[in-house]
Amino acid sequence: xxxxxxxxxxxxxxxxxxxxxxxxxxxxxxxxxxxxxxxxxxxxxxxxxxxxxxxxxxxxxxxxxxxxxxxxxxxxxxxxxxxxxxxxxxxxxxxxxxxxxxxxxxxxxxxxxxxxxxxxxxxxxxxxxxxxxxxxxxxxxxxxxxxxxxxxxxxxxxxxxxxxxxxxxxxxxxxxxxxxxxxxxxxxxxxxxxxxxxxxxxxxxxxxxxxxxxxxxxxxxxxxxxxxxxxxxxxxxxxxxxxxxxxxxxxxxxxxxxxxxxxxxxxxxxxxxxxxxxxxxxxxxxxxxxxxxxxxxxxxxxxxxxxxxxxxxxxxxxxxxxxxxxxxxxxxxxxxxxxxxxxxxxxxxxxxxxxxxxxxxxx
Length: 363
Known about the structure:
This protein is of the alpha/beta class. The chain has 15 helices and twelve strands. Strand 7 (141-144), helix 6 and strand 8 form a beta-alpha-beta unit.
């Protein structure tokens, strides 16, 4: 009788556990069907090494974990035009097109960052000592791609030294020579058509093979100058603002991974990019070999403003539009505040908040 009752009790216990489990499962299914992920259409570079923070968030499914349903489309020609008419919600690409379109009335907003630094300044070896200091560049001919970050940053930095770069002035100190691509800039310096050139860090070995002298990374001209930004379609930003906050929460988490897990991240990008390990490690983690390139989702209003004011100074964009009408850092700030509250005392997130304040608020 005792065994029979014990067996009955055991069966009853098992049945109770199963019922609880089924009720829990039913509740979970019901809840998940109610919580709908927010869609976000993202124009995204096929060269993932140029957008590593977003790529980490994508590969680790942080976007989905934060409540997004991301739709990634590879960037192609005409990306800024596509964004400006609402074919995407956000675009991860160059700073100059975004600033130019916004200044001329397009309803787009710079909301985040991707790349800072990444260009080398070089010359012929016999001129290396002559041009070692910016203050000694008076009279030099600079080879740059028109409307490139290199042009704007060098104009800004040299302008801070009081050098005149106005092509219409009879007292012009610096001459800018427009060259269509990096390979031709290298040829221009090698043949003596220009004195100083600017190229992306990927050309470092080519410069060395040709016997040309790297003067310094362009970050020596302006520390951590910004390059590619993350730009939102204005109506999307207003109508789907919570989705943009989630977008940045995912990237903030990914940035922590980028800082703390170098070997894991290098292995991930070797797989994603099909590049050699040394190339990936140098691009992502070697300031010396990547010309001081860094990756950060912070909008960095301070340095973005420096590029924009230079565009205005040289009449590339109209003067009427203010930089504060173009940059909206509030989604990033809200995301960062939520992350800091969620992970109090985390040193990475604490530093990100301090950097945000220094580069966006305390101007």
